[in-house]
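Researcher: Let's do a round of design. I'm pasting the C-alpha coordinates now; please hold your answer until I've finished.
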Protein backbone atom coordinates (compact mmCIF):
# COMPACT_ATOMS: atom_id res chain seq x y z
CA UNK A 1 0.00 0.00 0.00
CA UNK A 2 3.03 2.29 0.47
CA UNK A 3 3.54 2.40 -3.29
CA UNK A 4 -0.08 3.45 -3.64
CA UNK A 5 0.58 6.55 -1.53
CA UNK A 6 3.27 7.65 -3.97
CA UNK A 7 1.16 7.05 -7.07
CA UNK A 8 -1.90 8.68 -5.53
CA UNK A 9 0.19 11.72 -4.55
CA UNK A 10 1.34 12.10 -8.17
CA UNK A 11 -2.31 11.74 -9.22
CA UNK A 12 -3.32 14.63 -6.94
CA UNK A 13 -0.39 16.75 -8.15
CA UNK A 14 -1.52 16.34 -11.78
CA UNK A 15 -5.21 16.69 -10.92
CA UNK A 16 -4.77 20.22 -9.63
CA UNK A 17 -1.92 21.17 -11.97
CA UNK A 18 -4.41 20.78 -14.83
CA UNK A 19 -6.64 23.36 -13.13
CA UNK A 20 -3.96 25.69 -11.79
CA UNK A 21 -2.33 26.00 -15.20
CA UNK A 22 -5.17 28.10 -16.63
CA UNK A 23 -7.74 29.21 -14.03
CA UNK A 24 -5.70 31.97 -12.28
CA UNK A 25 -5.12 33.68 -15.65
CA UNK A 26 -8.50 33.13 -17.26
CA UNK A 27 -10.31 36.21 -15.94
CA UNK A 28 -7.52 38.53 -17.09
CA UNK A 29 -7.39 37.01 -20.59
CA UNK A 30 -11.17 36.99 -21.05
CA UNK A 31 -11.75 40.59 -19.97
CA UNK A 32 -8.60 42.33 -21.25
CA UNK A 33 -9.29 44.66 -24.21
CA UNK A 34 -8.71 43.22 -27.65
CA UNK A 35 -6.18 45.99 -28.27
CA UNK A 36 -4.05 44.45 -25.51
CA UNK A 37 -4.43 40.91 -26.81
CA UNK A 38 -7.38 39.83 -24.65
CA UNK A 39 -10.86 38.78 -25.76
CA UNK A 40 -12.68 41.88 -24.50
CA UNK A 41 -15.56 40.00 -22.82
CA UNK A 42 -17.68 41.82 -20.24
CA UNK A 43 -17.57 41.00 -16.55
CA UNK A 44 -20.93 39.24 -16.83
CA UNK A 45 -19.73 37.14 -19.75
CA UNK A 46 -16.58 36.24 -17.86
CA UNK A 47 -18.68 35.28 -14.82
CA UNK A 48 -20.86 32.97 -16.88
CA UNK A 49 -17.83 31.29 -18.46
CA UNK A 50 -15.99 30.75 -15.17
CA UNK A 51 -18.96 30.36 -12.83
CA UNK A 52 -22.03 29.01 -14.59
CA UNK A 53 -20.10 26.60 -16.82
CA UNK A 54 -18.33 25.07 -13.85
CA UNK A 55 -21.58 24.78 -11.94
CA UNK A 56 -23.23 22.89 -14.79
CA UNK A 57 -20.35 20.42 -14.75
CA UNK A 58 -20.62 19.95 -10.99
CA UNK A 59 -24.37 19.39 -11.20
CA UNK A 60 -23.96 16.85 -14.01
CA UNK A 61 -21.20 14.99 -12.17
CA UNK A 62 -23.36 12.62 -10.08
CA UNK A 63 -25.30 11.53 -13.14
CA UNK A 64 -22.19 10.98 -15.26
CA UNK A 65 -19.06 10.17 -13.29
CA UNK A 66 -20.67 8.92 -10.08
CA UNK A 67 -23.08 6.59 -11.81
CA UNK A 68 -20.61 5.24 -14.38
CA UNK A 69 -17.69 4.83 -11.98
CA UNK A 70 -19.79 3.34 -9.20
CA UNK A 71 -21.65 0.92 -11.43
CA UNK A 72 -19.96 0.29 -14.81
CA UNK A 73 -16.28 1.30 -15.30
CA UNK A 74 -13.07 1.10 -13.31
CA UNK A 75 -12.19 4.47 -11.82
CA UNK A 76 -8.69 4.74 -13.26
CA UNK A 77 -9.84 4.08 -16.85
CA UNK A 78 -12.80 6.40 -16.58
CA UNK A 79 -10.52 9.14 -15.22
CA UNK A 80 -8.15 8.61 -18.14
CA UNK A 81 -10.97 8.92 -20.68
CA UNK A 82 -12.38 12.10 -19.14
CA UNK A 83 -8.95 13.75 -18.98
CA UNK A 84 -8.07 12.82 -22.56
CA UNK A 85 -11.30 14.37 -23.83
CA UNK A 86 -10.84 17.40 -21.57
CA UNK A 87 -7.39 18.02 -23.01
CA UNK A 88 -8.81 18.09 -26.54
CA UNK A 89 -11.50 20.59 -25.50
CA UNK A 90 -8.97 22.87 -23.80
CA UNK A 91 -6.65 22.81 -26.83
CA UNK A 92 -9.49 23.75 -29.18
CA UNK A 93 -10.74 26.48 -26.82
CA UNK A 94 -7.33 28.19 -26.86
CA UNK A 95 -7.81 29.26 -30.49
CA UNK A 96 -11.37 30.58 -30.08
CA UNK A 97 -12.28 34.25 -29.75
CA UNK A 98 -16.10 34.34 -29.75
CA UNK A 99 -18.11 34.49 -26.53
CA UNK A 100 -20.71 31.93 -27.58
CA UNK A 101 -18.08 29.39 -28.60
CA UNK A 102 -16.11 29.97 -25.43
CA UNK A 103 -19.21 29.47 -23.25
CA UNK A 104 -20.25 26.25 -24.98
CA UNK A 105 -16.74 24.79 -24.88
CA UNK A 106 -16.38 25.81 -21.23
CA UNK A 107 -19.60 24.01 -20.38
CA UNK A 108 -18.42 20.93 -22.27
CA UNK A 109 -15.07 21.03 -20.48
CA UNK A 110 -16.65 21.39 -17.06
CA UNK A 111 -18.85 18.37 -17.71
CA UNK A 112 -15.79 16.18 -18.28
CA UNK A 113 -13.40 17.83 -15.78
CA UNK A 114 -15.55 18.50 -12.70
CA UNK A 115 -16.32 14.80 -12.16
CA UNK A 116 -12.58 14.07 -12.05
CA UNK A 117 -12.27 16.09 -8.83
CA UNK A 118 -14.61 13.70 -7.01
CA UNK A 119 -13.20 10.65 -8.76
CA UNK A 120 -9.62 11.46 -7.74
CA UNK A 121 -10.81 11.78 -4.14
CA UNK A 122 -12.68 8.49 -4.21
CA UNK A 123 -9.75 6.80 -5.98
CA UNK A 124 -7.51 7.86 -3.10
CA UNK A 125 -9.99 6.78 -0.44
CA UNK A 126 -10.42 3.37 -2.08
CA UNK A 127 -6.69 2.62 -2.10
CA UNK A 128 -5.42 3.90 1.23
CA UNK A 129 -5.10 1.76 4.37
CA UNK A 130 -5.77 4.58 6.84
CA UNK A 131 -7.86 7.05 4.88
CA UNK A 132 -8.35 9.63 7.61
CA UNK A 133 -4.61 9.87 8.31
CA UNK A 134 -3.20 9.29 4.83
CA UNK A 135 -5.63 11.26 2.65
CA UNK A 136 -4.48 14.72 3.84
CA UNK A 137 -0.87 13.78 3.04
CA UNK A 138 -1.93 12.68 -0.45
CA UNK A 139 -4.26 15.64 -1.05
CA UNK A 140 -1.59 18.20 -0.14
CA UNK A 141 0.17 17.30 -3.37
CA UNK A 142 -2.80 18.76 -5.21
CA UNK A 143 -2.04 22.15 -3.68
CA UNK A 144 1.62 21.75 -4.63
CA UNK A 145 0.55 20.87 -8.19
CA UNK A 146 -1.63 23.98 -8.43
CA UNK A 147 1.22 26.22 -7.26
CA UNK A 148 3.75 24.53 -9.55
CA UNK A 149 1.60 24.85 -12.67
CA UNK A 150 0.61 28.46 -11.96
CA UNK A 151 4.27 29.40 -11.47
CA UNK A 152 5.84 27.32 -14.25
CA UNK A 153 3.56 28.62 -17.00
CA UNK A 154 4.63 32.29 -16.78
CA UNK A 155 8.27 31.24 -16.44
CA UNK A 156 8.09 29.28 -19.70
CA UNK A 157 5.56 31.23 -21.76
CA UNK A 158 5.46 34.82 -20.48
CA UNK A 159 8.91 35.87 -19.27
CA UNK A 160 12.55 35.88 -20.29
CA UNK A 161 15.84 36.49 -18.51
CA UNK A 162 14.72 34.86 -15.27
CA UNK A 163 16.51 35.84 -12.07
CA UNK A 164 16.11 35.02 -8.39
CA UNK A 165 14.08 37.12 -5.95
CA UNK A 166 13.08 36.66 -2.31
CA UNK A 167 9.28 36.65 -2.78
CA UNK A 168 7.32 33.86 -4.50
CA UNK A 169 7.53 32.69 -7.24
CA UNK A 170 11.30 33.27 -6.68
CA UNK A 171 12.22 33.17 -10.40
CA UNK A 172 11.01 36.19 -12.38
CA UNK A 173 11.96 38.13 -15.47
CA UNK A 174 10.75 40.84 -17.85
CA UNK A 175 7.54 40.06 -19.71
CA UNK A 176 7.66 39.04 -23.36
CA UNK A 177 5.99 41.23 -26.03
CA UNK A 178 2.22 40.80 -26.49
CA UNK A 179 2.07 39.01 -23.16
CA UNK A 180 -1.72 39.22 -22.74
CA UNK A 181 -2.37 37.33 -25.96
CA UNK A 182 0.08 34.69 -24.76
CA UNK A 183 -2.25 33.88 -21.86
CA UNK A 184 -4.21 31.67 -24.28
CA UNK A 185 -1.24 29.32 -24.19
CA UNK A 186 -2.16 28.50 -20.58
CA UNK A 187 -5.03 26.46 -22.02
CA UNK A 188 -2.65 24.52 -24.26
CA UNK A 189 -0.31 24.03 -21.30
CA UNK A 190 -3.24 22.62 -19.31
CA UNK A 191 -4.13 20.31 -22.21
CA UNK A 192 -0.60 18.89 -22.28
CA UNK A 193 -0.73 18.22 -18.54
CA UNK A 194 -4.19 16.66 -18.95
CA UNK A 195 -2.98 14.22 -21.60
CA UNK A 196 0.03 13.28 -19.50
CA UNK A 197 -2.26 12.78 -16.50
CA UNK A 198 -4.58 10.59 -18.59
CA UNK A 199 -1.68 8.33 -19.49
CA UNK A 200 -0.55 8.20 -15.86
CA UNK A 201 -4.05 7.15 -14.74
CA UNK A 202 -3.53 3.81 -16.46
CA UNK A 203 -0.76 3.07 -13.94
CA UNK A 204 -2.99 3.75 -10.91
CA UNK A 205 -4.30 0.89 -8.74
CA UNK A 206 -7.14 -0.98 -10.42
CA UNK A 207 -10.39 0.22 -8.82
CA UNK A 208 -13.33 -1.69 -10.32
CA UNK A 209 -17.00 -0.77 -9.92
CA UNK A 210 -18.99 -2.38 -7.15
CA UNK A 211 -20.55 -5.66 -8.26
CA UNK A 212 -22.62 -6.10 -5.10
CA UNK A 213 -24.60 -2.86 -5.41
CA UNK A 214 -28.13 -3.09 -4.06
CA UNK A 215 -29.46 -0.34 -6.33
CA UNK A 216 -28.67 0.36 -9.96
CA UNK A 217 -28.91 4.16 -9.70
CA UNK A 218 -25.94 5.10 -7.53
CA UNK A 219 -26.61 8.83 -7.58
CA UNK A 220 -30.19 8.34 -6.35
CA UNK A 221 -28.93 6.37 -3.39
CA UNK A 222 -26.23 8.99 -2.80
CA UNK A 223 -28.82 11.77 -2.60
CA UNK A 224 -30.56 9.78 0.13
CA UNK A 225 -27.53 10.55 2.28
CA UNK A 226 -29.25 13.87 2.91
CA UNK A 227 -31.53 11.93 5.27
CA UNK A 228 -28.49 11.30 7.47
CA UNK A 229 -28.56 14.19 10.02
CA UNK A 230 -24.79 14.70 10.24
CA UNK A 231 -24.40 14.81 6.45
CA UNK A 232 -27.39 17.16 6.10
CA UNK A 233 -25.84 19.57 8.62
CA UNK A 234 -22.52 19.38 6.78
CA UNK A 235 -24.25 20.27 3.50
CA UNK A 236 -26.18 23.11 5.17
CA UNK A 237 -22.93 24.63 6.43
CA UNK A 238 -20.97 23.89 3.23
CA UNK A 239 -23.26 25.94 1.00
CA UNK A 240 -22.68 29.35 2.67
CA UNK A 241 -18.98 28.54 3.14
CA UNK A 242 -18.62 27.69 -0.55
CA UNK A 243 -20.37 30.97 -1.40
CA UNK A 244 -17.92 33.11 0.58
CA UNK A 245 -15.06 30.93 -0.69
CA UNK A 246 -16.01 32.02 -4.21
CA UNK A 247 -16.22 35.67 -3.10
CA UNK A 248 -12.62 35.31 -1.94
CA UNK A 249 -11.40 34.52 -5.46
CA UNK A 250 -13.53 37.25 -7.05
CA UNK A 251 -12.85 40.11 -4.63
CA UNK A 252 -9.36 39.48 -3.23
CA UNK A 253 -7.39 40.64 -6.32
CA UNK A 254 -9.14 44.06 -6.51
CA UNK A 255 -8.97 44.35 -2.73
CA UNK A 256 -5.20 43.83 -2.72
CA UNK A 257 -4.90 46.33 -5.56
CA UNK A 258 -6.99 48.75 -3.48
CA UNK A 259 -4.43 48.31 -0.68
CA UNK A 260 -1.69 49.44 -3.04
CA UNK A 261 -0.14 46.18 -4.22
CA UNK A 262 1.10 46.17 -7.80
CA UNK A 263 -0.48 43.71 -10.20
CA UNK A 264 2.69 41.62 -10.25
CA UNK A 265 2.51 41.25 -6.45
CA UNK A 266 -1.09 40.10 -6.18
CA UNK A 267 -0.50 36.52 -7.30
CA UNK A 268 2.48 35.92 -4.99
CA UNK A 269 0.55 37.49 -2.10
CA UNK A 270 -2.33 35.08 -2.61
CA UNK A 271 0.00 32.07 -2.62
CA UNK A 272 0.67 32.72 1.07
CA UNK A 273 -2.64 30.97 1.66
CA UNK A 274 -1.62 27.99 -0.46
CA UNK A 275 1.66 27.53 1.39
CA UNK A 276 -0.32 27.60 4.63
CA UNK A 277 -2.67 25.01 3.16
CA UNK A 278 0.28 22.67 2.58
CA UNK A 279 1.24 22.86 6.26
CA UNK A 280 -2.30 22.35 7.56
CA UNK A 281 -2.91 19.45 5.17
CA UNK A 282 0.17 17.75 6.59
CA UNK A 283 -1.27 18.08 10.09
CA UNK A 284 -4.89 17.33 9.25
CA UNK A 285 -4.81 13.59 9.95
CA UNK A 286 -3.48 14.18 13.47
CA UNK A 287 -5.98 17.00 14.06
CA UNK A 288 -8.92 14.81 13.06
CA UNK A 289 -7.72 11.95 15.24
CA UNK A 290 -7.27 14.15 18.30
CA UNK A 291 -10.01 16.76 17.90
CA UNK A 292 -12.67 15.04 15.78
CA UNK A 293 -14.57 16.23 12.73
CA UNK A 294 -16.89 18.58 14.62
CA UNK A 295 -14.08 20.68 16.07
CA UNK A 296 -11.84 20.67 12.99
CA UNK A 297 -14.58 21.58 10.50
CA UNK A 298 -15.90 24.29 12.83
CA UNK A 299 -12.35 25.64 13.08
CA UNK A 300 -12.24 25.87 9.27
CA UNK A 301 -15.52 27.78 9.11
CA UNK A 302 -14.44 30.08 11.95
CA UNK A 303 -11.19 30.84 10.11
CA UNK A 304 -13.23 32.32 7.26
CA UNK A 305 -14.92 34.63 9.75
CA UNK A 306 -11.63 35.71 11.34
CA UNK A 307 -9.88 36.38 8.03
CA UNK A 308 -12.70 38.45 6.58
CA UNK A 309 -13.18 40.32 9.84
CA UNK A 310 -9.48 41.26 9.83
CA UNK A 311 -9.89 42.51 6.27
CA UNK A 312 -12.87 44.63 7.32
CA UNK A 313 -10.40 46.80 9.28
CA UNK A 314 -8.85 48.29 6.17
CA UNK A 315 -6.85 50.80 8.20
CA UNK A 316 -4.61 48.03 9.52
CA UNK A 317 -1.06 48.00 8.13
CA UNK A 318 -0.94 46.43 4.67
CA UNK A 319 1.60 43.76 5.73
CA UNK A 320 -0.85 42.61 8.43
CA UNK A 321 -3.72 42.39 5.96
CA UNK A 322 -1.60 40.47 3.45
CA UNK A 323 -0.13 38.17 6.11
CA UNK A 324 -3.64 37.21 7.24
CA UNK A 325 -3.77 35.20 4.01
CA UNK A 326 -2.16 32.46 6.10
CA UNK A 327 -5.67 31.72 7.42
CA UNK A 328 -6.66 30.48 3.96
CA UNK A 329 -4.87 27.20 4.65
CA UNK A 330 -6.96 26.65 7.79
CA UNK A 331 -10.12 27.63 5.91
CA UNK A 332 -9.70 25.16 3.06
CA UNK A 333 -7.95 22.23 4.73
CA UNK A 334 -9.97 22.17 7.94
CA UNK A 335 -13.34 22.71 6.28
CA UNK A 336 -13.30 21.28 2.76
CA UNK A 337 -10.65 18.54 3.02
CA UNK A 338 -12.17 17.34 6.29
CA UNK A 339 -15.62 17.41 4.70
CA UNK A 340 -14.40 15.18 1.84
CA UNK A 341 -13.02 12.71 4.37
CA UNK A 342 -16.24 12.70 6.38
CA UNK A 343 -18.31 12.19 3.24
CA UNK A 344 -16.24 9.09 2.48
CA UNK A 345 -16.83 7.83 6.04
CA UNK A 346 -20.59 8.26 6.04
CA UNK A 347 -21.23 6.94 2.50
CA UNK A 348 -21.88 3.22 1.91
CA UNK A 349 -19.07 1.60 -0.06
CA UNK A 350 -21.07 1.12 -3.27
CA UNK A 351 -21.85 4.85 -3.71
CA UNK A 352 -18.67 6.56 -2.53
CA UNK A 353 -17.95 8.05 -5.97
CA UNK A 354 -21.49 9.41 -6.18
CA UNK A 355 -21.42 10.71 -2.60
CA UNK A 356 -18.31 12.77 -3.39
CA UNK A 357 -20.02 14.22 -6.46
CA UNK A 358 -23.18 15.03 -4.49
CA UNK A 359 -21.02 17.03 -2.10
CA UNK A 360 -19.33 18.56 -5.15
CA UNK A 361 -22.69 19.86 -6.37
CA UNK A 362 -22.77 22.11 -3.33
CA UNK A 363 -19.21 23.45 -3.30
CA UNK A 364 -18.57 23.47 -7.06
CA UNK A 365 -22.13 23.92 -8.33
CA UNK A 366 -24.21 26.09 -6.05
CA UNK A 367 -21.35 27.93 -4.36
CA UNK A 368 -19.79 29.55 -7.47
CA UNK A 369 -23.14 30.73 -8.87
CA UNK A 370 -24.40 32.17 -5.58
CA UNK A 371 -20.95 33.52 -4.76
CA UNK A 372 -20.83 35.38 -8.06
CA UNK A 373 -24.27 36.88 -7.43
CA UNK A 374 -23.32 37.87 -3.87
CA UNK A 375 -20.02 39.35 -5.02
CA UNK A 376 -21.75 41.49 -7.62
CA UNK A 377 -24.44 42.62 -5.19
CA UNK A 378 -21.88 43.57 -2.54
CA UNK A 379 -19.76 45.48 -5.06
CA UNK A 380 -22.83 47.43 -6.22
CA UNK A 381 -24.21 48.00 -2.72
CA UNK A 382 -20.95 49.31 -1.28
CA UNK A 383 -19.77 51.20 -4.34
CA UNK A 384 -18.53 54.72 -3.60
CA UNK A 385 -17.97 57.75 -5.74
CA UNK A 386 -15.18 57.38 -8.26
CA UNK A 387 -15.70 53.62 -8.60
CA UNK A 388 -14.12 52.70 -5.24
CA UNK A 389 -15.67 50.08 -2.96
CA UNK A 390 -16.16 50.24 0.80
CA UNK A 391 -14.26 47.01 1.44
CA UNK A 392 -14.66 47.33 5.21
CA UNK A 393 -18.44 46.95 4.89
CA UNK A 394 -18.13 44.30 2.18
CA UNK A 395 -15.89 42.03 4.22
CA UNK A 396 -18.00 42.45 7.36
CA UNK A 397 -21.01 41.00 5.55
CA UNK A 398 -18.95 38.09 4.22
CA UNK A 399 -17.43 37.51 7.68
CA UNK A 400 -20.86 37.29 9.32
CA UNK A 401 -21.92 34.64 6.82
CA UNK A 402 -18.88 32.61 7.83
CA UNK A 403 -19.71 33.06 11.51
CA UNK A 404 -23.28 31.90 10.91
CA UNK A 405 -22.07 28.76 9.13
CA UNK A 406 -19.61 27.99 11.96
CA UNK A 407 -22.32 28.32 14.62
CA UNK A 408 -24.77 26.24 12.58
CA UNK A 409 -22.27 23.42 12.17
CA UNK A 410 -21.09 23.44 15.79
CA UNK A 411 -24.63 23.41 17.15
CA UNK A 412 -26.12 20.89 14.72
CA UNK A 413 -23.39 18.37 13.85
CA UNK A 414 -23.02 15.02 15.61
CA UNK A 415 -20.27 12.81 14.24
CA UNK A 416 -21.16 9.39 12.81
CA UNK A 417 -18.59 6.62 13.27
CA UNK A 418 -19.85 4.23 10.54
CA UNK A 419 -21.49 4.43 7.09
CA UNK A 420 -25.12 5.50 7.07
CA UNK A 421 -27.89 3.10 6.08
CA UNK A 422 -29.51 4.69 3.03
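Researcher: That's everything. Go ahead.
Model: Designed sequence:
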Amino acid sequence: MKSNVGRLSVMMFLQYAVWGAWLPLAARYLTAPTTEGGLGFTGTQMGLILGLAGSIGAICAPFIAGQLADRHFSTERFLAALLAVGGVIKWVTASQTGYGTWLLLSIAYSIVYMPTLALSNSMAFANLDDRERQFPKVRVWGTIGWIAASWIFPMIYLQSGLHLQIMPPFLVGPELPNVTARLADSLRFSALISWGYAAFCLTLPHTPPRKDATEKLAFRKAFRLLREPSFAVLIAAALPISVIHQVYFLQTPPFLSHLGLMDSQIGPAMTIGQFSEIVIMGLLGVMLARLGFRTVITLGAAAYFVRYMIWSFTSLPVPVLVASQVLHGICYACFFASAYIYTDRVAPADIRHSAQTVFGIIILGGGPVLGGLLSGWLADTYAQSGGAIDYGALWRVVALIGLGAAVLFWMGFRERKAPAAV
